[in-house]
Amino acid sequence: MTIQEMVDAINSPKNCSFSFFCKLEELTDQNNIKEAIKCIKDHFNCDEKMATQVFNQYKNQIYAECKRIENENPLSPEQIAYNNAVAKEMLNKPKCPTCSSTNVQKISSFSKAGSVAVFGIFSQKVRHQFKCNNCGYEW
Ligand SMILES: [Zn+2]
């Protein structure tokens, strides 16, 4: 696999393992570069040098995308504060709004609209969605 192919695989969560995508997303959000690279290395079974290149390219793509989103949809400080609060709440304790079960699964999908600034690079780009494993509700 080439570096670009790996980056593409990461950017298409459908084509790669969900848990891997979630883990990498969280590590990137926390700016835990060392662990993120290790995660890529383990997943693709490649060497550290390659994993580092994949991670850098992947991160650059996200930054470029974030800049683009920012230019298209400039947010007011109030919107940013609100989005940050929502994103934090969702990341910290996902809970089913219909049955209150905490047995929920995170589904992340790339969203062109609606961005969250300041709170982690991934939160700016990825729309967090959840599915309840108890009642099946998605939100
Ligand atoms: Zn539920």
Topology of this protein?
Elements: H1 3-11, H2 18-29, H3 33-44, H4 48-72, H5 77-92, E1 104-110, H6 121-125, E2 126-132
Antiparallel strand pairs: 1-2
Helix pairs in contact: 1-4, 2-3, 3-4
Bound molecules: zinc ion.
Zinc ion (ZN) binds near residues 96 and 98.
**How many β strands by DSSP?**
2
Work out the helix count: 6
Unreliable stretches covering 5 or more consecutive residues: 110-125
What composes the largest sheet? 2 strands, antiparallel
Taking Cα atoms only, what radius of gyration do you get, to the nearest Å? 16 Å
Strand content: 5-15%
- The order of strands across the largest sheet is 1-2
Total number of domains: 1
Helices and strands, in order, run as HHHHHEHE
Please estimate the helix content.
55-70%
How confident is the prediction overall: mean pLDDT?
74
Structural class: mainly alpha
Shape: globular
What is bound: which ligands? Answer: zinc ion
- Span between N and C termini? 35 Å
Quick take:
With 139 residues, this protein is mainly α. It has six helices and two strands. Helix 1 (3-11) packs across helix 4 (48-72), helix 2 (18-29) runs antiparallel to helix 3 (33-44) and helix 3 packs across helix 4 (48-72).
Structure report:
This protein has 139 residues and is mainly α. The chain has one domain. It has a two-stranded antiparallel ribbon with strand order 1-2. The relative contact order is 0.14. The structure holds zinc ion. The site of zinc ion (ZN) has 8 residues, from loops.
